[in-house]
Structures are given as structure tokens and as C-alpha cells.
Amino acid sequence: MNEPIKLLQSKNFKSAQVHIPGSKSESNRALIISALEGNNGTIHNLATARDTRTMQSLLNDHGKIQDVLDAGTTMRFLTAYYAVSNEHKVLTGTERMQERPIKILVESLRELGCSINYTKEDGYPPIETVGFKEQLTDKLQIPGNVSSQYISALLMIAPILPSGLTVELTGAIGSRPYIQMTLEILSAFGIKYNWSGNTIKINHQPLKKASFTVEADWSGASYWYAFATLGIHGGILLKGLKDDSFQGDRDIANIMSDLGIKTTFTEEGAYLQKIESASRVSIDFIDCPDLVQTVAVICAAKNIRGLFTGLESLKIKETDRIIALQNELKKINCSFRESEPGTYSIIPSDLPDRVEIDTYEDHRMAMAFAPLSMKLDVTIHDPGVVEKSYPEYWAEVRKAGIEII
Q1: Residue 220 resides in a domain
Q2: Mean pLDDT of the region 159-168
Q3: Angle between helices 24-37 and 50-59 (to 10 degrees)
Q4: Is residue 405 assigned to a domain?
Q5: Active site residue 243
Q6: Which one of 67, 249, 290, 358 is the catalytic residue?
Q7: pTM
Q8: Which of 67, 133, 159, 252 has the smallest number of CB atoms closer than 10 Å to its CB?
């Protein structure tokens, strides 16, 4: 689905229930840990996301060249996995993937004793894993405010290292819930760990056979919060979501209490109900950067002024999400700019009657702007990008009663 689609303005839903698929973040971690264990257990409710399908395919592919496409977690997790598994692989990806830095992870793996080469530009994919003869250290320092995927990649291989691993996170820690997610999934496979202050220690120990069930994806749920708050009535049940999730994007339920939605958890999932919105919000996204686009669009559509912090990692995502947001929000008369170092102000104005949104090869741009169709006609270019994390998205939007042409 690469031709543009047009979502016609629809003030409310015909269907009040949405099935939320399995979490891509949990699925990709569980697949790596299960592979390290020997694949003796079972994983239930795997994500249908292309990133997860790519991870499964490559883990079963015995060829030397491994193309991760545009999957960041797949690139970083497989780099660590192949490096310590003594597998000779070349990991490559799309043009954008080859622009996303991997130096911190590669240098850390080299410190451990892994042999890894860059095949083009130093610090960026493609990379070649050559071998792992002996562990040279059991302690690493890594900045806490870089991509948590580097940290998670190292933690997942820690139990099989002959001397285990202690990781000291320097400076502020970003995306903390994603690190905790990794540790919790390791725990489900029998691994004991200690996280004290900025130091995480995992001793050498056997991974155990496990039956692991992936939770419903809170990242995917966030777009339905947007549909609910921008619609007239808002009542919608998101099936499968749990209150006690360790996914960082669970925070959307808290954030939305100021943006016009009350969340009530039932045995079936999360029920969303409209309430009054605040006129201004101040939100720190350090633990949930994937929510920024969704919340920015909500603020623009509801004329809510916002101050956003914790956006440091957005520049190295599927696209530079700061620039992408600035460009597309401008189309709906909303300013999004850095008002002071590290703080972005969002200043809305009157919405137009229609808008055409470019997606920058970024799945979250497409899904975050789609709920604007509660207010105006929205054309989405390259809508197929949603395959990366939520292939069912447009089908679910149609089921909800929004007309797509």
C-alpha cells in the first residue's frame, strides 16, 4: 500500500472495540533471549509487525548476509547476538538504517572481546561480526541517555558470557522502562539480575526453557487514544491492554488524563472515556519517546499549548522526527520549535479544512496523524509504512467507521 490514502472526516466511531496486537518491543527481546536459550520454550502472541517477522526470518537464516531492512532493534540485537555466538555475519539494512549510529554498541562489544568490522563508514552499518575467542572484561560503561537498545542488546547476552557482565550507565538514564522490560523478560527465562543505582549486574548463568506471553502493544494503543479524544463521544475499548504493563508507553494513559481521556481497566482491556482537557501541558518524554508524535498531533488538534522535554533520541529514529514533526505540524498551522535547549514548545492555531501528510518512511508519522480525520480530511502519503509495527492499523481504522479512499 504505497499509493496515498485519504481519510474522510468522521466525527465519531461506528465500532467501539479495537484489538491491540502484541508488542514489537517485547517480541523482539523474547526472540533473541529464546534463541540464546536454544529455542526450547514457546512465545505466545508474537507481534505481527514487519520488524518482528524480519527478526524471526533472520534468526532462521543461515546465510552470511543479513538484511534487517529498517528495523533498529533487529540490527542492534542481532549485532550483539551474532558477535558472541561466533557467527560470521554481515548485517546491513536500508539507506536510512546505514545512517543510524551503532558505534557505542560495537565499541562495547569489542571491549568484551568480540571481533567486529565496519564494511563502509566507521560507526554505522553495515557491520561484520567475525568471532569471539575470549572475554576480555566483565565491566562496561555506557552512556545512559543514548538508545536503550544498545543497553538491552548487551544485557541480553550477559548471562551467556563466561564471566557475566556489569554495565554502569553514566549520566542521565533515558527510556528506563525499555531497560526494565529487557530485565523482566530475562527474568521470565530464569535469569537473576541486580540493578542498583546506575549499575546493572548479571552473573553467568543458564537461561531456562520458558513459556512467555507477549503483552498487547501500548505504542499501538496510543493512536486510539488520539482517535478517542478527537472524536465527539470518545468511548472505546482497547482489547488486551493491561494496567500493570512494564512497557514505557503505558504512560500514554497518564498523559491523556490531561488531554481529555480517562482510562478504566477491565478484564477485557482499557476503556477510554472523554473528559475535560487542560489548556496547557508540560510533558517529559524521556521514558516514552515514541509517544511524542501522537501527543503533538493531539495538542495541535485540540488547541492545547505544550512544553515537551526528553526528545533527545528522536533525531536518530526511522527519520529525524523533530524535523518531520516541524514540517508536518506547520501544515496544520501549528508551530513546534526548540524554545530553549532541550525544551520544545508546541503552539497551535486554527486547523485547515484538509491536509496532506508526508510520512518520511516512518510508521509513527502515518499513525500519529491519521486521527486528525476526526477533525478534517487527511491524506496520508506512503501509508504502507505502518507494516513496520502495526500492519492491521488501516483495517482497524476502517472497522472503526472511518472512511478511507
Answers
A1: yes
A2: 97
A3: 10
A4: no
A5: no
A6: 290
A7: 0.89
A8: 133
